[in-house]
Amino acid sequence: MRVPDSSAPSLAGSLLVANSSLLDPNFRRTVVAMASHDAEGAMGFVINRPTGQLLAEIAPDVEPLKSLGHVPVFSGGPVGTDQILIAALRIASNQHGVPVFLPALRESPEALAQLDGYPGISVRAFVGYAGWTGGQVEKEIGENSWIIAPPGAELLDAEQCADAWRTVLLSLGPYYRILAQAPDDIYRN
Q1: Cβ atoms within 10 Å of 102's Cβ, excluding its own
Q2: CA dihedral defined by 59, 64, 69, 72, rounded to 10 degrees?
Q3: 99-101 and 79-93 as β-strands: parallel, antiparallel, unpaired?
Q4: pLDDT, tens only, 105-120
Q5: Residue 133: how many other CB atoms lie within 10 Å
Q6: All structural domains of the chain
Q7: Which of 4, 42, 89, 99 has the highest Cβ tally under 10 A?
Q8: Which residues of the chain are under the pLDDT cut of 70?
Q9: What's the sign of the alpha-carbon dihedral 34, 36, 40, 45?
Q10: Pick from 155, 182, 151: which is nearest to 28 by CA?
Q11: Helices and strands per DSSP (H, E), number in the chain
């Protein structure tokens, strides 16, 4: 068993793309935008599971959220499904020029509403999130459950995100193109 490397760089800002061998229904064919990652654990949002609802439909009476009623809602992951988290996603470059997602979570709803509509920013609501304890995500990566990928600007379009798993894999090269084009159930091929 491989021991997770606590000196490894943070995955915050990266995408975790479920390998086709990951059969857990919570993460099958998902893309997770990593919001935070350190020795204590990791947190992210599944960005390719839209619910088809707007925030106004699931929280119509929550006064502070009314200015964000038009924001699309996604199933963010299996943890905290009794919570609604709102994130303003944007893509920037880290010090090495690699694209990274930068979710703003601690902003007030009013501040997030003002960010919505700016070029290069996508405000979304998530029911739940993806969470890992310290070393857990590193172990899963070591088991080949996840592929680490940089985000692309097309992921800021909430309407295109339902197909993000395939889109990201297609961008990673020939081997991953084969995975992206495999049927969901290989036994029905």
Answers
A1: 17
A2: -80
A3: antiparallel
A4: 556 777 777 777 778 8
A5: 10
A6: 15-188 (3.40.1740.10)
A7: 42
A8: 1-8, 94-107, 185-189
A9: negative
A10: 182
A11: 5, 9
pLDDT at 65: 83
pLDDT digits (tens, 9 = 90+) for 131-152: 999 999 999 999 999 999 998 8
Are 18 and 27 in contact by the 8 Å Cβ rule? The answer is yes
* pLDDT in the model for residue 2: 38
Q: What is the DSSP letter of 141?
A: H
Angle at 14 between CA 8 and CA 19, to 5 degrees: 90
Residue 71 token pair:
């924001």
Question: What are the structure tokens assigned to 80, written together?
Answer: 């905290």
Torsion 142-27-31-118 (CA) sign: negative
